[in-house]
Amino acid sequence: MKALVFEGPGRTSWRDAPDPEVKDAADAIVRGDTVTICGTDLHIIKGDVPEVTPGRILGHEAVGEVMEVGAEVRTVRPGDRVLISCISPCGRCRFCRGNRYGQCQGGGGWVLGHLIDGTQAEYVRVPFADLSLHPLTSAVDGADAVLLADILPTAYEVGVVNGQVKPGDTVVIVGAGPIGLATVATARLCTPERIIAVDLAESRLTAARAMGADATVLSTEDPERLVADLTDGLGADVAIEAVGLPETFDLCTRMVRPGGRVANIGVHGKPATLHLEDLWIKDVTITTGLVDTFSTPLLLRMTAAGKIPLTSLVTHRFELDQMEEAYDVFSRAADTGAMKVVLGGTPHDTVLPAN
After folding, report:
1. Cβ contact 192:171 at 8 Å
2. What is the number of other CB atoms lying within 10 angstroms of the CB of residue 346?
3. Are 124 and 118 in contact (CB under 8 A)?
4. Fewer CB atoms near the end CB (10 Å): N or C, the chain?
5. Residues 257 and 340 in one domain
6. Is residue 243 within 8 Å of 269, Cβ to Cβ?
7. How far apart are CA 61 and CA 85, in angstroms?
């Protein structure tokens, strides 16, 4: 098969790779019909995630068709159309029993495109298939469904739930890229009084308004002043960091009110300063997190009901064999205007069983 392979920091290639096989009775082999690229993949290529070793197939988000299942798989079967979650929970360990799937200690968690080969390929082996795969009806568009593999549950769980967004809150979201826009969309489900989006690019702020942001401000135009003006000087109830830079994290800590919450979503590749000399007296709660995907079934239902706008998040479409071109467009988002890029390959006519 063909796959996007990490060759070391700064280097990838779309090349031949061995077809995946069922290794465990809980595995499934899925043909990837629709895949996407995550900002975390860019961090991996930069070398920010040293656990990813050369030779690894990247990617952790896809929609596809089940081709083969192990003997213990009960909830899906060959021919089923499924969403592949970015998190693969074993379902048995202490953390999985508490819905903390991202911290799985039983061989799962975030493994696809990280510790095992991922989804940016013609086929992928999915471990713990009963909990890692979500059946989809034919009515759900693949480009919409693939966004529920990672960015929608990440935005909702790590941003909205961890930030305890409540009715009447003022929420400021720093970063209006794909994850920030997904946070705007899912925060609306909690009926805050206002959502303020902050970004460097006017085009992304326009997208934030389309997703439901009530106010937007360029990061160069004193967002702290705007937040203060809109809250009678108190600050935001919830400040959500959706970039992954020391400067944006620090901005969130300056805009949050006493007793407020800072929810960090962004993937940080270098240390950020925590100004406890200012924060210790403000009763501020700071949360971090890796997505657990416990909310995926809920978000699938809300998407099917039309409660979460997704179509505007997808800005570019490619065929699967245009993976390198798609990465180039996605990595130069400031120039290309890319939000989410979706790749859909032509399905194969035949599939040979691994055995």
Report:
1. yes
2. 10
3. yes
4. C
5. no
6. no
7. 6
CB contact at 8 A, 108 and 88: yes
Please choose, from the candidates 122, 149, 134, 130, the residue with its C-alpha nearest in 3D space to the C-alpha of residue 62.
149
Cα 111 → chain centroid: 14
pLDDT in tens, 190-210: 999 999 999 999 999 999 999
Q: Which amino acid is at 63?
A: V
pTM for the full predicted model: 0.92
- Smallest CA-to-CA distance from 161 within 300, 274, 291 is with 291
Same domain, 301 and 265: no
Any long-range contacts for 207-216 (C-beta under 8 Å, 24+ apart)? 207/176, 207/181, 207/312, 207/339, 208/173, 208/176, 208/180, 208/181, 208/184, 210/309, 210/312, 211/181, 211/184, 211/185, 211/309, 211/312, 212/184, 212/185, 212/188, 212/309, 213/173, 213/176, 213/184, 216/176
Residue 158 CA to residue 187 CA, distance in Å, equals 11
Q: Residue ranges of the alpha helices (H) in 7-70?
A: 39-46
Residue 71 domain flag: yes
Q: Say which residue the tokens 């596809």 belong to.
A: 64
Q: How far is residue 339's CA from residue 128's CA, in Å, rounded to a whole number?
A: 30
Residue 108 DSSP label: -
Half-sphere exposure (CA, 13 Å, Cβ side) for 147?
30
Query: By the 8 A CB rule, do 66 and 82 touch?
Result: yes
% of the chain at pLDDT higher than 90 = 87
Looking at residue 322, its pLDDT comes to 96
- Cβ–Cβ under 8 Å, residues 337 and 331: no
Buried b (16+ CB within 10 A) or exposed e, 25-58: ebbbbbbbbbbbbbbbbebbbeebbeebeeebbb
| DSSP label at residue 162 | T
Provide the 8-state DSSP code for 103.
G
Backbone angles phi, psi at 168, to 5 degrees: 90, -5
In what helix (H) or strand (E) does residue 327 lie, and over which residues does it extend?
A: helix 323-331
Q: What is the CATH number of the domain that holds 202?
A: 3.40.50.720
Q: Which pair of structure tokens corresponds to residue 240?
A: 């959500």
pLDDT in tens, 301-330: 998 888 888 767 899 999 999 999 999 999
Burial of residue 141 (number of CB atoms within 10 Å: 0-12, 13-18, 19+): middle
- Domain carrying residue 54: 2-150+292-344
